[in-house]
Structure prediction request, 502 residues.
Amino acid sequence: MRLNRAVSRQPDILLLYSDQHAAKIAGHAGDRVVRTPNLDTLAAEGIRMTNAYCPSPICLPSRMSFLTGRAPVDQSCWTNRDILPSDLPTFAHSLGAAGYAPWLCGRMHSIGPDQMRGYVRREVGDHSPNWLGGKAHDLGPLNRANDPWRESLEASGPGRSAYETYDKMVTDTAVTMLHEAGERRRAGDPQPMALTVGWILPHAPYVCDPDLYADYSGRVPPPAIPPPDPDLEHPHYRWWRENRHIDDVTDVEIARARAAYYGLVETLDGQVGRILTALETSGLSENTLVVYLSDHGEHLGERGLWWKSTLYDESAKVPLIVKGPGLPRGQTRDGVVNLTDLTATLLDLAQAPALPGAQGRSFADMLQAPDAPWHDQTFCEYVNDGVPPWAGGREVIQRMVRLGRYKYIYHHGKPGQLFDLEDDPDEITDLAGDPACAAVAERLRALVLSDWDPELISSTLRQRQKQQALLERWAQATKPDDLIRWTMHAEDSWLGDPPTGT
Prediction:
């Protein structure tokens, strides 16, 4: 598929990549409280995908899958401790082979010695260590508030985390890079640009600028989906709620964390606006394909859950907006897609080589025409080896399939779940035990397991733990330098009133 425009040259590409943005919390998605004018403008000028899913509802595997166009199972990369094999070609490799200059500014979340993954220039490295066993970043009074601990709800409200400081540096640097790309173009350099801008917001800690917090406090509605009856809740989520101590979250904590998250989304939107302004002033906007995406969603108290790491839509769905030359404006597409499909689509539109072995399919035709043929099917998997301190010591192996109106969630060793998202978009009524839906449940369960072996995954996880333990000991003993890293300072994080001099 090629862009429908008179000029056939390759488009420039600008990827705006956030972390943990709930798809529903944006003005263009129907939220009447949050202020996202820049994302709303992007949606009004482009196409919003309403049923976009991540490959995995956790940072590293989702991001690595987007890079390769492969599902986590097809690259054995499931957890935030897994190292993607460096011989797997990525989105950036393909763009480079097609004549682009693939640049990255900010977050990628790659573990191991390969901190480029096909990008030829990288500015502002990750905030986390490059090595297993490396020294973790320091959030000062907000330590543990960024991960699935009760502290993230207790240490919430007005303040600032170093994540916001990081994102500002990413935006400042990306603006400079865009201006540099514009200057090169005006000087006669025809090489197409491909810039990925990676932010951390609105990822927890649930802490935002005090003025923004004051503005949102009292205006953000409570979660729309209440916690289920404990006797009826799926056993995995009942265990997760109890293990993470979120079974007794107070109304004050809920309101405080949600108001701060809304402030973080607005802060992120401001960074998006600065980038889009720089794109205009650089002179590159006319032929640039602009994409906004996030690596996974955020529960934010819906159904009594927080953070990500589930296969419910709050966690597994992502915001996705595509704007570009020759594409329709101000439209939505309801086809079921994945971020791995986005990879294939961007390479298609860029006239770049398809990635060998990738499962993602290009939905470029659907962008042009809503009635274009599409298989309306995707998978998302969540696998945890139980090693991280916040994981509760329990191995978790789950996979969902979304096929048209139905979603089936496979829980290894536990009952599956089936939802009819047309009649029940909030996933309240589990139909897996309904005799009238037995055939649908069995068909979708078989589809989940057709190319995915949970026992083999479990065996791989156990073997990998031994390998990772040795790599961690090596890093702790040798203290290797991080190759590309941005250093966070504890004093950049605070809760409550700003420190004197801030």
Remarks:
- The longest strand covers residues 331-338.
- The domain at 12-371+379-495 is CATH 3.40.720.10 (Alkaline Phosphatase, subunit A).
